[in-house]
Amino acid sequence: MFQQTPLHLSVRYRALSAVRLLISCGANVNAVDSSGMTPLHMAASILHQDIASSLISHGADVNMVGIYSHISTHTYKQVLKGQHRVVGVKLS
Fold it and tell me: Could you say which of 19, 41, 45, 78 has the lowest number of CB atoms within 10 Å?
């Protein structure tokens, strides 16, 4: 579905331990699926701070723009309704 990587799927199902395991095994934290979403875009869209923070601390690009959404992860800061710490980890 949407040519998602195991990392995308782990984020989608909120499996933090799987996300951490995949990252430790070298998963690409900036992989883009066929809908233009990175794992970080997905984590921000489901408001999962721990996953988003883990991705950011392992090099996820907070400025990547989705193919269809035309929105960078930085912009998700506005969407996170008080959860701006997620993106703020890298921006501050």
Answer: 78
